[in-house]
Amino acid sequence: MQIADKIASKNKNVAYVSLEMSGEQIIQKIIAKRTRVNSRKIRNGDLTEDEIEKIGLACGEISELPMNILTKANTIQKIEMETRRMKNRDKLDLLIIDYLQLVRNAGNFNSREQEVADISRTLKLLSLELEIPIIALCQLNRNASRNEPTLADIRESGSIEQDADNVIFLYQEDEENNIVTVDLQKQRAGNTGKSRLKFNKSNSQFVNIER
C-alpha cells in the first residue's frame, strides 16, 4: 500500500487489487500514513480540529492520485480483463495484488497447487505482455513465523518462486521495537541482501531506522 501511494504520487498509474480489504479501508490506511494520525482515531471519528484539517488536506491529495482500487477482481481472468482495459487506455504503469492466494481461477484443476501455479504463470506472462511490473503479495507457510523465511516457505506452490523475478520477505525481527527485516532472497538481475525498517503500527507506515 505504501509503495502504491508513493508510485501514484509520482503521477504513475497504479492498479491495486485488494481481495482482503475494502476500498474504504485502504483509503483510511493511506490517510493515516500521510497524516500520521492514529488509524484507530480515524475509524472512530475521535479527532481534534487539527487532525480533521490534516485529513481534509490528505483527502484532497488522494483524490488526485492516479490509483484504481479493484475489490471485485477476484479471479485471474477478471484481473487480466481489467488490466488490459486500463493498459489500452494508457492508464496502467504498475499492478499490485493483495494477495495471491485469494485469487481464484475460473478453470478446472486437480489441486489448489496447480491452480496457483497457473495464476502465477499468467501473471508472469501478463507482466511481459503489458510491459509493467507486477507486485503480488503472498502468504507463507505457518512454520515460517518461527524462523527466518526461505523460498521453500512460499505457500501452496513452488511455481511462484520460479516465475518471480524478485522475491522479498518481510518478517518481524524485533517485536518489542517493531523492527521488520526486508530480505531480498531472489533477484534475477542483481545481488541479494537484507535491510531493516521500523513499522509504525498506529498508522501502518514503514520508515527508515534512525542511525
Task: Characterise the protein shown here.
Strands 2-1-3-4 form a 4-stranded parallel beta sheet, sandwiched between helices. It has a 4-stranded antiparallel beta sheet with strand order 5-6-7-8, with no helix packed on it. It is α/β, with parallel strands linked by helices and 211 residues long. It is built from 7 helices and 8 strands. A hairpin with a 4-residue loop joins strand 5 and strand 6.
Strand order of the largest sheet: 2-1-3-4
**C-alpha end-to-end distance:** 25 Å
* Helix and strand sequence: HEHHHEHEHEHEEEE
**Strand runs, count:** 8
Shape: globular
User: Mean pLDDT, rounded to whole units?
Assistant: 90
- How many helix segments? 7
Sheet with most strands = 4 strands, parallel
Work out the helicity level: 25-40%
Instruction: Please indicate the percent range of residues in DSSP E strands (runs of 2 or more).
Output: 15-25%
Key descriptive features of the protein:
211 residues; alpha/beta; four-stranded parallel beta sheet; four-stranded antiparallel beta sheet; 22% strand
What topology does this entry show?
Layout: H1 2-9, E1 14-18, H2 23-35, H3 39-44, H4 49-63, E2 67-70, H5 76-88, E3 94-98, H6 112-130, E4 134-136, H7 159-163, E5 166-174, E6 179-187, E7 193-200, E8 205-208
Parallel strand pairs: 1-2, 1-3, 3-4
Antiparallel strand pairs: 5-6, 6-7, 7-8
Helix pairs in contact: 2-4, 5-6
Short description:
With 211 residues, the chain is α/β, with parallel strands linked by helices. Helix content is 37%, strand content 22%. The strands form two sheets. A four-stranded parallel sheet has the order 2-1-3-4, with helices on both faces. It has a four-stranded antiparallel sheet with strand order 5-6-7-8, with no helix packed on it.
